[in-house]
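Give me the fold.
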Amino acid sequence: MKRQTPRQAIALSYDGQNAPTLSAKGDDELAETILAIAREYEVPIYENAELVRLLARLELGEAIPEALYRCIAEIIAFAWYLQGKCPPGFEPSPEGPSVD
């Protein structure tokens, strides 16, 4: 019988100054709890199983690897856009973000 891969979830914290850090991670029930808390606080959820597997290797409080900066920055920028936020001094385009 083939064993199903456990559901995983991670949460990142970002203060706008330093690299995002891993603030929560878990499998199965803990993953569902992390997702439920995110939904409760209207935190945007981005689903990417491969990225979660990479980030789940980090220890809690550890900064994301530099190799993932651009990927994570794009996710954070899109999450901010969805919430109507933008960095200080940034003028958003009326057409929304561009996708390259």
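The chain has a mean pLDDT of 87.
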